[in-house]
Design goal:
The protein is an alpha/beta fold. It is built from 14 helices and 13 strands. The strands form two sheets. Strands 1, 2, 3, 4, 5, 6, 7, 8, 9, 12 and 13 form an eleven-stranded mixed β-sheet that branches.
């Protein structure tokens, strides 16, 4: 008999035993999101930021077909250095396990696995969303439909500005996914503080976000996620003029080189990195560290209601 069940890392098991708050972290930033050696350095910084803000990090990934909630440092290093690490969305998890693959989990997969492991808070950089010209290509991230059925709070800096931000917000509304700005009613655009659209709700403290999760659990009505959009301060964003110019150039290159489908996002992110001489990478790192800190504070604020935030109450 083969057991493909999700396994918790030792530090996550200890955290549950001691009723300590947990924060889920994705692993695609390690294998696909950042170049080496930045990927390994930043992965460790993210985990330390969670610890520094009162919670326990649970980086999720697959090693040799085993889906692990709470990779240890050797496993994180393996995903950072190994060739052929698969990028795993929800649909890929079972196939990759059967193939004994190494894999890094996307926002969709990380959210689903975290919820299955009863972790209620997840920190990431930016969400996937509706791609530009999706009316012709039907190109939409699986993040959106997954979050419609996954009761977790996702701390992010909005969606990547290379996407159709307005259409993404419309789809989230249709899917019943709650969206709130953290101390703002403007939806951020990942690299830039203001993505150009309003959101209906503003939450102003980690405790207030934890109250939303308690309310959702007590009501028993909604099964969708809460997207908490946490914008960079204006003085930490990528220069908006540089951003707009780089994005326009990137779209011209896409058309010229006939790049479509899954190749669009990595191409544009690479273009941003090269054209801004690494400034976009620095902004990306600032984003994920700020989100990791806020997610940990939210998880720690939920200690009065452990079940809603994914860790067991003391016996």
């Amino acid at each position: 008999m083969t057991d493909f069940a999700i396994r918790s890392g030792e530090h996550v098991t200890r955290a549950r035993r001691d009723a300590r708050p947990l924060v889920a972290l994705e692993s695609t930033i390690i294998s696909h999101g950042l170049p080496h050696p930045d990927n390994l350095r930043v992965a460790r910084e993210i985990e330390q930021t969670v610890r520094d803000n009162g919670a326990v990090p649970a980086t999720i990934g697959m090693i040799g077909g085993e889906l692990i909630v709470g990779l240890d440092d050797d496993q994180i290093q393996h995903l950072a250095l190994a060739d052929g690490v698969a990028k795993l969305s929800v649909r890929d998890l079972a196939v990759a396990a059967a193939r004994r693959s190494d894999g890094a989990t996307t926002v969709a997969a990380t959210s689903s696995v975290a919820a299955a492991a009863e972790i209620g808070v997840f920190a990431t950089g930016g969400l996937g969303g509706v791609h530009r010209e999706a009316n012709a290509t039907f190109d939409e991230s699986a993040d959106l439909t997954t979050l419609a059925r996954t009761p977790i709070v996702v701390v992010c800096a909005g969606v990547k500005s290379i996407l159709d931000v307005g259409a993404t917000l419309e789809r989230l509304e249709t899917l019943g996914v709650a969206v709130a700005g953290y101390r703002t009613t403007r939806f951020p655009g990942f690299f830039i503080t203001d993505g150009g659209f309003d959101v209906d709700w503003q939450l102003d403290s980690p405790a207030q976000v934890a109250d939303v999760l308690r309310a959702r659990a007590d009501q028993g009505v909604s099964t969708g996620a809460l997207i908490l959009a946490n914008p960079l301060p204006a003085d930490q964003q990528l220069d908006p003029a540089l951003h707009d110019r780089t994005l326009a150039e990137g779209f011209e290159l896409l058309a010229k080189n006939r790049i479509t489908g899954k190749a669009v996002t990595p191409f544009l992110l690479s273009h941003f990195h090269e054209s801004t001489h690494g400034q976009s990478l620095e902004v990306n790192v600032r984003i994920i560290l700020r989100n990791a800190a806020l997610a940990a504070q939210i998880a720690a604020s939920g200690s009065a209601a452990p079940a809603t935030l994914g860790f067991a109450a003391p016996a």
